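Morning F.,

Quick status update on the modeling queue. The single chain you submitted on Monday has been processed. Sequence for confirmation:
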Amino acid sequence: MNKSLQLVCKLLCIASALALTCLFLVGAKSWSSNRILRQDNGIAHSKVIEKENFPNTPFEVIDLKATNKLVKFGEKFDDDENWLKKINFKLKNNSDKPIVYVLVYLHFPETEATGMGMTFQLQYGQRPGAKTVTGKPMLLIKGEVSGITLSDSDYGELKRFIESRQSLGSISKVVINIPTVYFADGTVWSGGVLYRPDATAPGGMRAVSNK
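Structure tokens below.
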């Protein structure tokens, strides 16, 4: 093969390689654009709900629902960007003490990519000794259950809270954390420990039991 023919072959190979590269880049860009478009249009994609676990919990979280069906903690499911509004579950009192107040945290680990992790607080019932009323009265005796849902007002505040830093559509994971419940007799379960009111103790509460 003469040098001219070799040169032509090399040029043809280079041109073919460049054409394939361009086709790949155009295809990748098109796939990425379509993927973003699908997300922006609210098409379903994987979500997951997890739960923070504590020892000696006097309650049980049951009947976790999303998209109007039962799901398990840690189990992925598909939904649109308004999925957080549809989450609900039941809190069952397993203790001998009536529960009158429940503190619930919704933590969003994905927000740690843009700063400190964001956690949204919800309150149910009325906290004994509080200077302001936090909600409707609750008296949940042993064996009874109470539904935990986000009201329209709660969801509106949650949406504004998340979107103060990033889009709601970027959230696909939430961790439910119930760190504190108050009982009718004034005792408090917090983080696995039971406390009773004691004016001589730091913070006015003293640990009395792990049961």
